[in-house]
Amino acid sequence: MAEKVSGEMSEDSSDSAAAVSQDLRSVLVTSVLNLEKLDKDLYRGTHHWVPRTRRLFGGQIIGQALVAAAESVGENVLVHSLHCYFVRAGDPKVPVLYQVERTRDGRSFSVRSVKAIQYGQPILICQASFHSNQPSPLQHQFTMPSVPPPEDLLTGEELIQLYLSKPDLAEKAKQGLNKLLADEVPIEIKPVNPPDFYRCVAMEPKKLYWVRAKGHIGKGDMKLHCCVAAYVSDYSFLDTALLPYPGQRATFLASLDHAMWFHNTFRADEWMLYETESSWTGMDTYTYTHTHPLTHTHFSPTHTSHPLTLPTHSHTHTHIERQVWTHRDTYTHARGHAKLRAAAFQLVLCVSLPTC
Questions:
Q1: Is residue 44 part of a domain?
Q2: Cβ atoms 229, 302 nearer than 8 A
Q3: How far apart are the first and last CA of the chain?
Q4: 96-105 and 109-118: which strand pairing?
Q5: pLDDT bracket for residue 83 (50, 70, 90)
Q6: Which residues contact 218 (CB under 8 A, 6 or more apart)?
Q7: Segments forming the whole domain that contains residue 330
Q8: Spatial CB neighbours of 165, under 8 Å, sequence gap ≥ 6
Q9: 122 in a domain, yes or no?
Q10: Are residues 212 and 325 in the same domain?
């Protein structure tokens, strides 16, 4: 898929900024999301971004699995949903094989099953459904939250620099923030309500972020934008479940399953508003979080649902869901199936005991 990316440039502001930024294709497409084709429906991924957990980043495995699945369908169909289960931790020292099964090809829909494999065993099982892009006579969605535009907000890196400039900041806190600052990720994030990293105050389990891929992708390959959105969907938003519990810190985080719906065409290199909410936590520390990404044009491109677990020497399960709006002038979003529904995920968190 990486080799098929169009170099077409649009005339919007993000494209003009891209002229002076590093081409995203050198970061995500030619490395992180680039796969080597070994045989029909068999691919290998060798370039891994390794977070501080030293395990494979779940978003990369999801993105690469979607790249492999998309290679087996026609040019006139796009992914509209994917459902993934993380069954084992990934080893960043070992390539990942992606085995695609062509489950069904119909007139309008195609279904693909993908296994990501290491050491002869699956680490991820993914099902993706593709359909031809047809207009719908029915359109509705939730109202986009009223928030400041991304141009008026600071990036995560700028906020960290702001905290580091505080003269009374403890040395341990400085070390932690410098580790965050050293992480090189191809994603730009601007929190709408910047967190106070060291304030022990219970908050509603809900966050709003402006998010986009760094660099330039171009508008010529919608499949690639979907793969990049899948990569982004598993990054950095899962601590939403801990906001009501000040003083507890996630020392371990592992996704269990991840579902994502694509409601509309969009660009992953343009600003999207991520509305992330943890709707439930409990049952041996299990939490459910959902995210609703909205584009700067105000339509919902994706929806994500993400359950996770977090033990304090027991397991906590949580559900996280995201809603995404794009940053433009019009929008269309629905929590269930509008035109792009971020992602729902289940994951496991290890939580330290309260310190407040």
A1: yes
A2: yes
A3: 49
A4: antiparallel
A5: very high
A6: 5, 6, 7, 8, 9, 10, 15, 269
A7: 155-351
A8: none
A9: yes
A10: yes
**Domain count within the chain:** 2
Name the residue among 259, 267, 174, 271 with its Cα closest to residue 219.
267
Interval 236-248 mean pLDDT: 74
Q: Estimate the crossing angle of helix 156-164 against helix 171-182, to 10 degrees.
A: 160
Compute the mean pLDDT over every residue in the chain, rounded to the nearest whole number: 75
Phi/psi zone of residue 280: left (φ > 0), alpha (ψ -120 to 50 degrees), beta?
Answer: beta
Residue 265 resides in a domain = yes
> Which letter does DSSP use for residue 281 in this model?
E
Q: Are residues 108 and 165 in the same domain?
A: no
Q: Mean pLDDT check: name the lowest of 71-80, 146-155, 266-275, 315-324.
A: 315-324
List, in order, residues 6 or more apart from 42 with CB less than 8 Å away.
97, 98, 99, 100
Banded pLDDT at 2 (limits 50, 70, 90):
very low
Cβ neighbours for 196, distance < 8 A, ≥ 6 positions apart: none
pLDDT band at 174 (very low <50, low <70, confident <90, very high): confident
Domain termination site, one of 132, 167, 194: 132
In a domain, 223, yes or no: yes
CATH code assigned at 67: 3.10.129.10
